[in-house]
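Reopening: Acyl-CoA dehydrogenase family protein still failing for me.
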Amino acid sequence: MPKPVNTDPDFFGFADKLSEAERTELAEIREYLEREVKPLANQAWDTSEFPFEVIEKFAKLRLAGYQFPEYGDGKQRSPLFTGFLSLELNRIDPSLAVFSGVHTGLAMGSIYNGGDQQQRDRWIPEMADLSKIGAFALTEPEGGSDVAGGMRTTARREGDEWVLNGAKRWIGNGTFADLVVVWARDEADGAVKGFVVETPAEGFEATKIEGKIALRTVQNADITLADVRVPEENRLQNVNSFRDTAKVLASTRGGVAWQALGVAVRAYELAREYATRREQFGKPIGGFQMIQDLLVKMLGNVTAMFGIVVRLNELVAEGAGSAEQAALAKAFTTTKMREVVGWARELFGGNGIVLDYEVAKFFADAEAVYSFEGSREMNTLIVGKSVTGISAFA
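Support: Ran it again with your exact input. Result attached.
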């Protein structure tokens, strides 16, 4: 009797490390996302518009409360579960996963880690139930990788208020966010500080970035701040330097590694399914050696990616994960993801460039995942310094 076909991209069973309750919950989430969210994804990507009805659907799953159980449903979940949740979101649609990640990981994470208890209690409950949407404004038009040293957005203290001036770019959720965490350099002491701007605000303007070829559903914005006044109570009280900002980025960088895995997993699934039903020369193309070679190379990359992200989250659970390990995970997984989506598009032939077959979206979106949260080069230098003791940063 022939062995059953193994269709699982988790070839080595990494999900078995989850508890039975977590696996059950994850399966329920996957079924809900497939049924309620996936039908919205391709049209939204094609039109470059955000499907606002998805917010209510995400709210039903309490997707914004998992990392902050005291503000969510009170259930403590493992970091590994959070990683697999990211994988599932990205399998459905990387753009909608970015919406969730910006809101939860970056905006809520900044307030949770950088704010005091009063600020957490003030903003996070409404963010957890998605009645308030957050954005994270760090990158600037002239400052991406060099934003730490080259930040031009300024903050000036005037009595009980701060006056913000400057510009930000590539701000996800920026066109419709209710709360925007803005990072600015204090004119008095030169330190980078964090501020929660509640929109609409006088002098705050967000303009949608058009013409993107990746993550088209994400409403990235160019933001200008012209004498925007923010009360002292909106300054994140536990942020005193860019190092505090970097702590938020280090935690979300590992999340991007899971995002890369989710993109690669879906590209592999699409390619495997297509190879079994697409016929040429009288048989499914999956029966040709070169196609099987592509599939196995893709599965090998996916398996290696599973290994690094699962171990990273285990280290986080033990309180031992480092920024350097997160940097290596991000650099490695996004590079391997890029190979996987390229091979998947190749396997589809001409059909690989048509949105109807879905792989084109993941092929395009991979370019954005590869670039944000620190480029491969910047993350490589972080790890390079760790393993040599010598800084190669310019």
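The longest strand covers residues 161-171. If you still see a failure, please send the error message rather than a screenshot.
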